[in-house]
Design brief:
Blueprint: H1 7-15, E1 22-29, E2 34-40, E3 46-51, E4 56-62, E5 70-75, E6 80-85, E7 90-94, H2 98-103
Antiparallel strand pairs: 1-2, 2-3, 3-4, 5-6, 6-7
Length: 106
């Protein structure tokens, strides 16, 4: 299945409150059966958008980890995301609520 997304949709998604300067990756999450576009800002924010044939909608904004352009992203099916930035840092992000992640055994 090919999903074509118009650049105008990305501008629209950005206008909805999640700024995006560039796209990093696109990933299909098997658990939610959703396609996500991962974008970023030059200030180091990571933006997640849900993509379908009709629209792109903001899903999440991850900030506080990077201070520069994000160049690499790896999405794990366990709900974690690893990102690498031009600020020479790697960040591990969790999609789980903070309380749940803190109570799990390593």
């Amino acid at each position: 299945v090919c999903v074509c997304v118009c650049v105008a949709s990305l501008v629209s998604a950005s206008a909805q409150g999640l700024p995006m300067d560039y796209m990093v990756d696109c990933v299909f999450d098997v658990h939610s059966r959703r396609l996500f576009l991962i974008g970023g800002t030059h200030a180091g924010q990571l933006q997640l958008f849900h993509v379908n044939q009709a629209s792109i909608t903001p899903a999440a904004s991850l900030s506080g980890g990077h201070t520069a352009t994000i160049r690499a992203v790896s999405w794990s099916q366990d709900g974690t995301i690893v990102s690498g930035s031009e600020d020479s840092s790697l960040c591990l992000w969790s999609a789980k609520p903070k309380e749940q992640a803190m109570n799990e055994e390593p």
